[in-house]
Amino acid sequence: MKTRITELFGIKHPIIQGGMHFVGLAEMASAVSNAGGLGIITGLTQQTPELLAKEIARCREMTDKPFGVNLTFLPGFANPPYPEYIDAIIQGGVKAVETAGRSPEQYMPQLKAAGIKVIHKCTSVRHSLKAEKIGCDAVSVDGFECGGHPGEDDVPNMILLPRAAEELKIPFVASGGMADARSLVAALALGAEGMNMGTRFIATREAPVHENVKKAIVAASELDTRLIMRNLRNTERVLTNAAVEKIVAIEHAKGEGLGIEDIRELVGGVYPRVMQKGDMDAGAWSCGMVAGLIHDIPTVKELIDRIMSEATVIIRKRLEGFLDA
Ligand SMILES: Cc1cc2nc3c(=O)[nH]c(=O)nc-3n(C[C@H](O)[C@H](O)[C@H](O)COP(=O)(O)O)c2cc1C
Known about the structure:
alpha/beta, binds flavin mononucleotide
């Protein structure tokens, strides 16, 4: 399958693995790239730019295919040394960067001078248009379904993707709720030129996370996520657990008066405990509604091959079949 996304990133299949804190290590990114997609290392999971440089070198040893790095611009308090992270990306010869969180505008000159293709993750049409205007090469349009931060507009992909298609000139991928061949074909029908998956890639053999995490995703249904931190305007979709129920109760009690201090210990520093130790109630961790569509733990290659072969069947048999009939 050839789209502007496969051409842009030099990949075989129009499938991207979104950056994921404490999941997007070299093992994850290289597995996706080796299977013909675009694997992404999560920049800030590496505590320093030097550690990111090492992770890029490690990934380079595991794959000779293109892979990217995610740079998440965090809200408020934390301020990592982004220019130095970008230096590590450039020196590591990485040619694709997924940005998220806030506009990458101030870093575009540095990224573009190095010939890096930038795909910015946006939860709205207006942010997508801004990304196009500042020179991003593509957009990852992240609907309300998504695991992680869906923004504050609550527009699901059934509306958001065709709206993006109406307005954007640069190519975009569908992100949020994507799991299988049906997702890919639907995304293409709605105007996207590929798809970005987060949650689905965690439930794979190669994902470098504790087995408990993979099992929790397989066990979860589409009803098992919650939105937290809405009153902080930092909404996050997470898998429900004991800690999340506590957060929801605190948020109900505090209402508009909620401050980050009220929930900090239930949301901060949680990822290593969940992803590495498998402590599933340690705190809130991102997970998409798409968990309801995830029923197995295949290898990344099995997953991607299955998506591509079933997509062919859906397009050639099911869809064309309606016309032939
Ligand atoms: C566990 C987890 C951690 C994530 N961490 C990040 C992150 O650090 N930066 C980022 O830009 N997106 C992050 N995301 C969002 C994903 O890159 C992707 O946009 C999202 O998962 C797509 O929705 P889906 O889960 O329905 O596929 C994370 C998602 C998950 C599930």
